[in-house]
Design a protein that fits this description.
75% helix, 402 residues, mainly alpha, 14 helices
Length: 402
């Protein structure tokens, strides 16, 4: 979203408030699944359940559901809301929106029982959501000739390809596709964060600083430097997927880590410390730079920083923090509420930050991994559970007018 005011989203008469715009049902369902899926994973670590069955296996299931279940669902809600605004095209609402949420939900259910329904059914349901999201985003960009937003099509398209690789592996068609496909999805989500974050973080920060009487220095507008960092990020992920422990990957990742730190510095986030709704976006983006720094170290010295630290810096830190940052802000904006974080919202940010630090530390220090993984999971579940408790009434109710 390119502005801090609510978009013009007056609902059709036949559509309940819950189905007025894509972010409402998908933020609610995605947050619920973030908590439920992590709870299932903690139970799996304790040996109580085996999600994914023999078809996918618990580890592939966990990574898949965090990326293609939770994160893709939240990202889909954002794109279904933002792209119509950016392109001036109709938004999906009412029955069509409910049907798409249903497809996403059926994918989650099918992934819980793949041994029962079979890979073909699981793949059809799970890929259906991303296929619709990709085609609809591409159609809106093409019809509007809004080529500036063409990169928004690449995100869901890459998720679709990566997800297909996971299912192809389960079907015996692509050896190693489960691990590689999940990494493709992780890379796609981080690329979306760097792309969208580069638009909204400096814009929202500038709006807050100006609105609260702060003068220069203000965030630097996106320019050639940002484009260069984004292109280098794409190249780095390509190297990481192909050669995770190669010298070229380490060199590129180190360069990109510095590039993202410089982007953060240019956005002046340190000046927004009194407003959690703003500084949390900078904190979430910081995890992107940390993830690339870990990637560089792992590529050059694999025994020093394990791959799990890279993946969880991106997954728990960057994706977890940024999704909650955008979910809280967008919910407030689209329901006509003041753009400021109350104490409960600040607690959400603290919980996801604690979960991120604990999970990355568990990867870096194996001797304390088990309790830290458990406590990280608890923090994650509490963060998304608190979001549901505080924001579900807003998502389900009518927007405040006036």
């Amino acid at each position: 979203m390119t502005a801090d005011r609510p978009l013009s989203i007056l609902p059709a008469k036949a559509s309940p408030a819950f189905l007025e715009v894509g972010l409402r049902p998908f933020f609610l369902a995605g947050a619920a699944w973030a908590a439920i899926a992590l709870g299932i994973w903690l139970a799996a670590l304790a040996g109580a359940v085996a999600p994914g069955g023999d078809t996918y296996g618990p580890l592939i299931w966990h990574a898949h559901e965090m990326i293609y279940g939770f994160a893709a669902g939240i990202g889909g809600g954002f794109l279904l809301t933002a792209v119509p605004s950016w392109t001036g095209q109709p938004k999906l609402l009412g029955f069509g929106l409910a049907a798409l949420v249903g497809v996403w939900l059926l994918g989650r259910i099918a992934m819980l029982m793949p041994d029962v329904v079979g890979v073909a059914v699981v793949a059809s349901l799970d890929l259906g959501f991303l296929a619709v999201l990709t085609s609809r985003t591409a159609w809106q960009v093409r019809v509007a000739r809004n080529w500036r937003n063409l990169p928004m099509v690449a995100g869901p398209a890459a998720l679709l390809v990566g997800n297909a690789m996971v299912h192809a592996d389960a079907a015996g068609l692509l050896d190693g596709g489960g691990t590689l496909g999940n990494r493709v999805g992780l890379a796609a989500m981080i690329l979306l964060i760097t792309l969208i974050g580069g638009r909204v973080i400096p814009a929202f920060t500038r709006n807050w600083l100006v609105g609260n009487g702060y003068g220069v220095p203000l965030p630097v507008e996106p320019g050639r430097f940002d484009a260069a960092v984004l292109l280098a990020t794409v190249a780095t992920f390509a190297a990481w997927l192909a050669w995770p422990e190669a010298l070229v990957t380490g060199a590129l990742a180190g360069l990109v880590a510095v590039g993202h730190m410089l982007r953060l510095a240019r956005w002046r986030g340190w000046r927004t410390g009194v407003e959690p709704l703003v500084w949390v976006m900078h904190l979430g983006y910081l995890w992107v730079a940390i993830g690339f720094a870990f990637m560089a170290i792992h590529a050059l010295a694999p025994d020093t920083v394990p791959q799990a630290a890279v993946q969880h810096a991106f997954g728990v830190g960057a994706i977890g923090t940024m999704t909650l940052a955008m979910m809280t802000r967008a919910t407030l904006g689209h329901t006509g509420r003041a753009l400021t974080a109350d104490r409960g919202t600040a607690v959400i940010y603290l919980l996801v930050t604690a979960a991120s630090v604990l999970r990355v530390t568990a990867a870096l220090v194996p001797t304390v991994s088990t309790p830290m993984i458990d406590w990280s999971g608890v923090g994650w579940v509490l963060a998304f559970g608190l979001y549901l408790a505080l924001y579900a009434p807003k998502l389900c109710g009518a927007a405040i007018r006036g």
